[in-house]
Amino acid sequence: MSEYTVAFAGNPNTGKSTLFNLLTGMRQHTGNWAGKTVVTAEGYFTHKEHTYRAVDLPGTYSLYSNSADEEAARDYIIFEEPDVTLVVLDATSLERNLNLALQVLEITGRAVVCINLIDEAKRLGIDINLKRIAERLGVPVTAISARNGIGIEALLDQVARVATGEFKAEPLKITYNEEIEQGIAELIPMVEQTVGARYPARWIALRLLDGDHSLLASLRAHMGRKGISVAKEVARHGVTACH
Questions:
Q1: Which of 109, 169, 181, 218 has the fewest CB atoms found within 10 Å of its own CB?
Q2: DSSP letter (8 states) at residue 150
Q3: Which residues, listed in sequence order, are joined to residue 111 by a DSSP beta bridge?
């Protein structure tokens, strides 16, 4: 039986932890992220022939560096490289919630978008075109009600497709204005030279253009090699590219 890791990401109050608890039941434990006061929960669940280690990331509105929660969620997705990042959205607030989904897709294509509270959306007269959203995002999209156990089997089938590599994602690539794209293009070779091909060079370049010094600190901690001095040069170059 194969084992895969699934990270649960989502805005606060989307039902992310409700889904996590539904799947893991009593097979879970809580702790703190290394070096942080942020609480994490981990558990296990099985689906068909696979076992999944589930990690409930802190509820966040973004993957920037506005809080310890955001840094913890960001670092886990980048450096721990889960087999699947399950992004839980609120069906009644899709426009706001999709911001986080797009940020996840800039980091990894190994993702499933889970639209929760679908029963509440229907009650409010909200019609969601799952097929169209999936086509635009380039990853599987499913609708569920974690509270009422609706759509869970179909969701887990999609998680399995991504985890096993059966589904080959082509995640949406966001194109920024010409100045930003030029800065990204200049930075990517330097980022790749510094961190190698393992980490998402385009996303790291974008964050460096934004002056995200917290990301540099995380890179230094996880790389543990002299290459971080090049990252400082990259950061300086990024500031220049922005102006």
A1: 181
A2: B
A3: 85
Instruction: Give CA 172 to chain center in angstroms.
Output: 14
pLDDT, averaged in runs of 10, over the chain (243 residues): 94 96 89 73 95 96 89 92 98 96 96 97 96 97 97 98 95 93 93 85 91 83 58 52 47
Determine the distance from the C-alpha atom of residue 223 to the mean position of all C-alpha atoms in its chain, rounded to a whole number. 20
Provide CB contacts within 8 A for 231, sequence distance 6+: 191, 194, 195, 216, 219, 220
Query: Do residues 215 and 232 make contact, with C-beta atoms less than 8 angstroms apart?
Result: no
β 84-90/2-10 pair status: parallel
At residue 227, the pLDDT reads 47
Residues with Cβ within 8 Å of residue 92, at least 6 apart in sequence? 117, 120, 121, 124, 126
Q: Please state the pTM of the whole predicted model.
A: 0.90
Tokens of 206: 């974008």
Alpha-carbon distance values, 32 to 18, 57, 102, 107, 193 (Å) = 19, 11, 27, 24, 33
Q: What is the pLDDT of residue 36?
A: 66
